[in-house]
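seq/struct pair 1
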Amino acid sequence: MIGPGVGITGPGGYIGSNLSRHLARRGVSVHPLGRAQGIRVQEPGSLDQLPKQVSTLIHLAARTGVLESWSDPEEVHRFNFLATLEAVRLARVRGLRLVVLSSYPYGKSPALPTDEAQPAESMNPYSSSKALSEQLALDSARLLGFPVVSLRLFNVYGREPDGYHTLPAQIWQQIRSGGSRVEVQDALPRRDFLFIDDLCDALDRILDTAWTGSQVFNLGAGRCHSVADLVAAFGLALGRELQLVDLGQPRPGEIPATLCDNRRFAARFAWSPRTPLQEGLRSYLESPWA
């Protein structure tokens, strides 16, 4: 671990809560910066209470709902940009190492597997807001002289105490009480699913490695599975047959497949994903924080 502890914005969110517990188990001092601490991260000066000795800030706070971004795109853009602006300000003033978690930016039909050189194409207001926030961080780091890493996450899943963040969680909600019928809008799309513990391990590697400059990395498992594959894997994990009901209602602008080329990150930080899909899905069957 480089530096005494780490600051985390959005510590109460899906990734933030998992990461905070992961780092605490390692003995890392975590400094949460979120609503539970009375912090409105989108407001100027809100992050100044981060202890002066902390040298790394992981910026997770964001409005993340794709559906919300269609219903209120202005608020999603406003919050995500202003929260990133505050994280950038603190990094600039204190010379912090800043880690920004961005999202899949490559649109509907990129080459597969997809590397960082693929052109960006926003598919919804949420992805547009994340691309804008990433560019703010990268430009600020390059021009103002503090180090930043931006991670373009594909699909993260696993261990969700409140249950609805990801497609695997939504499937689990349908079968957790013993049901066997799983209804999905469209069984065909294929996604690169990265287990939450593998993401936390990737962030570990970033924290434990010296780096400078502004850098962008794709982060995913490097494997893709269809919605139908998810249902079948849940059935194997549960030891019972599940009935898949495909409503055949693809979302407007649906991406047929995503597959992450993670080689750049893997080489830079000596990381590889370790969790097969079926093993990761077992986390939904266990106690949330087992």
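seq/struct pair 2
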Amino acid sequence: MANRQTVLSYDGLDYTQMDETTDAEKEAFRDFSMRSKGYSIPAHEFMLEFRPDVLKRYRYWAHMITCEEEAGKPLSHMIAMLHHYAVIGYEDGILYEIRLSQFNGATRGEILDALAVAALHGHPLGTRSVAAAAAEALRNWEEPPHKDRWPADWSFDPHVFEAGLDYASPDATKDDLARIMDWYQTVNGEVPGYIRMLAEFRPRLLKAYRDRYEHAIRDALPKQMLPFLLLHQNTMRGFREGIRENVLLGRHLGMTRGQLTDAIFWAMYGSPENYAIADEAAGDVLRSMD
């Protein structure tokens, strides 16, 4: 167990002694929380008081989720957790993930792009929680130093998701629908079932959805974060179709298997049993990747 201490020693906890936690460790961990998140999370305070061994094993376990190739790039999973908390309306999590992301170099534009993606599923409930938890922090944002934060081959491209639709009219023409089908066929190699259903029964709704989807990332977030966020969220929910769609999209955008499985495995916060659903949905795609 001696090598455990090198994993997360920066947070003040001694991982070579899981069942013993000194007062000095607790204070060092609180100091780390204040520096990185702005406050000590109530859930962590509860565990520090009553079961610090649970907190230690939880923190150590969380560090094991990220693949080795991306171990030094934590921003993707921090923003994924922010996205999830914004969807479900967890105010504490929204605020501390924004502060933690800022501490690790996230820009305001990246945060706002992630929150725009969350609005695809969170709707007014989630956005109301974002407003309550984080509006003041976003208004008074101090841009952090732009250090090396993302994988080297990730990049921002606000036009990459566009299917070439004419949004001047709400009507979905035959050309619009053909372009949507071609986009999915070209990018994913298949058209999701919900897209086919919308095209048949509510084409105007499909076009309005595509308008939201195509333009959620506008300011700064790397394009690879759209499949990362939606893959993470759909694994949390156990939605097979969403898992497969975003694995295929991520592969098209050049994401590695490690990066895609990071998005999946960080969804263990929902339930590890969801991994079986992810395997059924897209295990064939992941195994085919080099």
